[in-house]
Protein 1
Amino acid sequence: MDNSFPGPKTRAALERGIPLFKNGLRFDAEMERAGQRGFRPVRQIVIDKAEGDFVWDLDGKRYIDFQNGWATNPLGNCHREILEAVEIANRRFGFHYDHPLRYDLAELLAATMPGNALPRTNYEVSGTEAAEAAVHLALTYTKRRYIITFSASYHGMGLGTKVLSGLDGDYGTYLEGWGGGVIKAPYPYSERIPAGMSEEQYTEYCLWYLDNHIPTSIAARDNIAGILIEPGLAEGGNWIPSTRFLQGIREVCDKNDWLMISDEVLTGLGRTGRMWGIEHYDVVPDILVYGKNLSGGIAPLCGISARDEIMGDNTDFLSGSTFAGTPAGCAAAIRTLQIFERDHIVAHAKRLGNIAAGIMAKWEKYSIVRQARGNGLLLGASFGKPGFAGADEKDWWTARAVRGKMLENGVWAISDHEDTIRLYPALNMDESVLREGLQIMEDAIRHVEKHGHSEGDAVAYPSGVAGF
Ligand SMILES: Cc1ncc(COP(=O)(O)O)c(C=O)c1O
């Protein structure tokens, strides 16, 4: 068994660092247990240097970066012009809440909004805060108490967003008493369709559930403020919803006088080959939530935009954490949007997304691939157990094994809590780098299909130890 990956410096850093953080006390025991089960001890890297489409680990090994700072570096790593803009802003303003870049950016953002319909802006530090602000805005504007969210959705790590989210697992354990105003509805994606139903039938059922079951059995129609939805289940595994579902949500909201909130922290700002993911569906939401890409990969900034009447005169809506809208964050966002326009970044992302979709569609011939999917550069593949024709049984370890093999061969992607590998190439990635990375991924799939993962290819970190 080859134990040379990752190299000694990376391994030493992980062994020193991981025990210092959450679940660190479990680390040694988990490593030993994984070793006894035949898994190699470490399949993680520590970044030493990042540039453009690549990162390097502490041992100097280079990787194609499909992880992308968790979908946060739209123009690749360490983009020079954004670094410069941030440096200038820091030197000029340091940190202050009131500075002109806030207004410059608000104007730019308003011009990007779907249907030019959401001119009001409110900044936050994280996507978590932005999603919570959107919900608070909806409740205070409508003066209602309930919000509808979805299974497998993810909106952040705050107490509020933890109860708003619907990810599987123990994500909401011990918070059961905190979600009194949150109503969870099913999200129709191909993994969750009940036996005997087609995707179309399940979509109709989910829309019926929203418009009929909830108001008659859970909360009064006129006590529901709105629906919070991701137009693409990002952290839930990069699943792509149908046009009928998103348009149906808009119809249900219009019919019931509910607000539609599109959480685009991950799908927004070009990720799907349109400026906003919701634009694929020809739907205009009432509130839009964004973050991640807006940072340009350098300085964080998140926020929400809303229709005038919702946020233009609503004194009950409270917001404004200390670091919301820093000069550095605004400078990064302004320069990012300028480069998007100058270099036709969204069109480039769309073209790359089409290339990737063409390549990945062929992967379903491998028995371990349950589904390959994408919308622009929101790309994913989900996996099943080797040896199961049609890969009926989904398998987290197979995904981990493929990701481990990719890492070993120089491609960095995400497989955290699901049976899925997610890819977020930079929107301006070089086409040849994208093709090379996908080829390495396909080779890894072929390898794991042939050898399985019992030979010890999987990542040993249990969920929650390394956090990846
Ligand atoms: C759809 C969505 N909303 C909210 C968040 C939370 O954003 P942050 O991690 O910046 O708090 C995420 C993060 O992945 C997300 O994907």
Protein 2
Amino acid sequence: MEQRNILVTGGAGFIGANFVHYWLAQYPQDKVIVLDALTYAGNKANLDIVANNSNMTFVHGNICDTALIESLIDTHQLNTIVHFAAESHVDRSITEPDAFIETNILGTYSLLKAAKKKWIDEPKAQGKPTPEHRFHHVSTDEVYGTLNATDPAFTEETAYAPNSPYSASKAASDHLVRAYHHTYGLEVTTSNCSNNYGYISLPRKTDPVNCYQHP
Ligand SMILES: NC(=O)c1ccc[n+]([C@@H]2O[C@H](COP(=O)([O-])OP(=O)(O)OC[C@H]3O[C@@H](n4cnc5c(N)ncnc54)[C@H](O)[C@@H]3O)[C@@H](O)[C@H]2O)c1
């Protein structure tokens, strides 16, 4: 793609904000639209470094709002979605799973629905070819279950075995993303990374002492 107009969901969170910083520095010709609901995990200040970059637009909104996603795709001529937004704190998913089902499953479904409508259905109805597009879904290695110290590492061939409401909700979203490729031809990729830590990560994710503290 010559120029990417990217919707970055969850771009005010830990990994999403690092991605936005990286992308704008590496690809200054691209436009980045950050969509974030600013839950307890999101912090707009994570984007301060790029706040004055004219190629970055921040939108305060929810990925479950399909009409908003559709209008963002139209307004900004989006051809790429990089989907970080999630409820991501495993311990919280055990005490308060509702938000995990809503954001991680229904939110991902909402994005897929909007992308399919704008990139596949509408061009087809107008007799136009499907435009070049990409839906990248950021998932977790936790969909593969839990490793003991002597177990071999997970691979992409490992069977899914989620063990928490968090990982189950991410596994469900992975399956929806896969199905949208196989059923409708949406161009998708999914990454299943393990735990990240670093610049602007929340202490509760890296410091075991803080694991059970609500912010
Ligand atoms: N942090 C890790 O170590 C790790 C490891 C593997 C996978 N992941 C995955 O990477 C992604 C990003 O993780 P993170 O650690 O940066 O998460 P985070 O909790 O720091 O950030 C999540 C962001 O999503 C936003 N958000 C939540 N619900 C939303 C909604 N309904 N609509 C719009 N925005 C919403 C929050 O406001 C926040 O800014 C997640 O999908 C997570 O499952 C993270």
Protein 3
Amino acid sequence: MAGIFDLTGRLALVTGAGQGIGAGIARHLAAQGARVVVNDIRQERAEATAEVVRRAGGQAEALAFDVTDREAVRAAIATRGFDVVVNNAGNAGAQLMHPRRFRDMDPSEWAGPIDVNLHGVMNTTHAALGGMCDRGFGRLVTISSGAGVVGLPIGVAPYGAGKGGALAFMRHIAIENAGSGVTANSIALGMMEMTEVHDAALVAKLAASVPCRRLGTGDDVGPAVVWLASDQAGWVTGQTIHVNGGGLTT
Ligand SMILES: NC(=O)c1ccc[n+]([C@@H]2O[C@H](COP(=O)([O-])OP(=O)(O)OC[C@H]3O[C@@H](n4cnc5c(N)ncnc54)[C@H](O)[C@@H]3O)[C@@H](O)[C@H]2O)c1
């Protein structure tokens, strides 16, 4: 009998996995035996993560595309029978986040966060779902945020709308497809280590605000994704799992 959370033989896509949390998710899925397709909008980042996975003895291939480009997503997914799709590409997409109060924003600033955090998730789901249903197995996991669940005073309203929209979307996909062997769940993250933030004083301040007294990493998220991707999680669908060190829950 296969071990618990064994993913041998499963083909998994992790979007935006060229760095940060997505890279951790890719490593953990591969460590459980999955063949991992490492996506990023930036080819060199996807290659770097795939190389890390292979060096650790896992199976990984890099595949660059933009999750907000529906045709590119369809082309990447159509010919591959993904068992697991992890929607991790997010934040402000290829740009850095520029938090601002909504009333000070120009409407042109809304499109990016909605596009990557909501439309990107819809694009991959639409491209992968039919095949998953036909094969009678699929695991859709979306990496969302506490910002999609509660209001925050940090200038990220459009991001929160994208993340909250993705949470609602996954619940509908879960129920539309319940009983088909396909599950759809989300992970709402709290304060995580950020690749672009190197200010030790800021990191310490943010960590102090987390009940568990540290920022989360890909090693906190990867095992939760492994569980949701496993055969054993087949009765878990339409859920939002909070992985946040004890903070930011409803
Ligand atoms: N870092 C945090 O504090 C935090 C908190 C809560 C939720 N999250 C969510 O976790 C996920 C990962 O966050 P992170 O901090 O590791 O991200 P990151 O910004 O460090 O890395 C994301 C990767 O996605 C790639 N990417 C961006 N736009 C893309 C697109 N359109 N198509 C394909 N790839 C694209 C980037 O090139 C980058 O390599 C995101 O969905 C983010 O919103 C992060």
Protein 4
Amino acid sequence: MQSESQLRRDICDIGKRIWTRGYVAANDGNITVRLEDGCLLATPTGVSKGFMTPDMIIKLDPEGNKIAGELNPSSELKMHRAVYAMRPDVKAVVHAHPPTATGFAVAGIPMNKMLLPEVIISLGWVPIAKYGTPSTEELGDVLKELLNHHDAMLLENHGALTVGHNLTNAYFKMETIELAAQISLSACLLGREREISPANVEKLMQVRKKLGVQGMHPALSSTPRMPAAESEQETCNHLSESRLADVVARVTREVLRNIKEMD
Ligand SMILES: [Zn+2]
């Protein structure tokens, strides 16, 4: 494992990347790394993640008490600690609000289509964790079930969370989620998303095995692909029945109004 001073620099570097890429605004987002002795390095609250210096990084003991640093940790540290408690294999956690992926989280549409080989190999599909008030214990509780099967998840009406066996690995999963969300949205705008066949998904899982990719993957625990947060799922090429009825009613009203005006 790298030295603590190197990890402090790495956290600042990743902070700069998430800010430069527009995954966070103002002082949003947080990053933590677990050291070998169980202590955590954490980004401070009230500071833009694009402008951190290594001395701003806070150190906490395994119980979450601050043992070094002038600034204070984010209240979302509870969420990070819940991850570490659940997953001994996880050494880093990244939380951000990447706009397109967060759009899926706001729309209540999980990224559960088999669209891109790289995403299938590394993450499988990305579920939405039910809404929990940021900075409370609620979020930790809702994440617990998902962390058994996933290394990346959307947080309903909030953002995204990725975990990894090191910091770069956790961060790359954040990039993967956002790019996959952008591509999925582009395909939606073009009119359709064509999924990779189950037989080819199976082949990709063999590739994952051969590559020795670390971390959880939903296909390994055969979790069902999650429906949308709302029972009523709506995607680009499928309007729910009630929405369809709505659209039909609106168009009908418009047509009738036009006919009246023509009279
Ligand atoms: Zn947040």
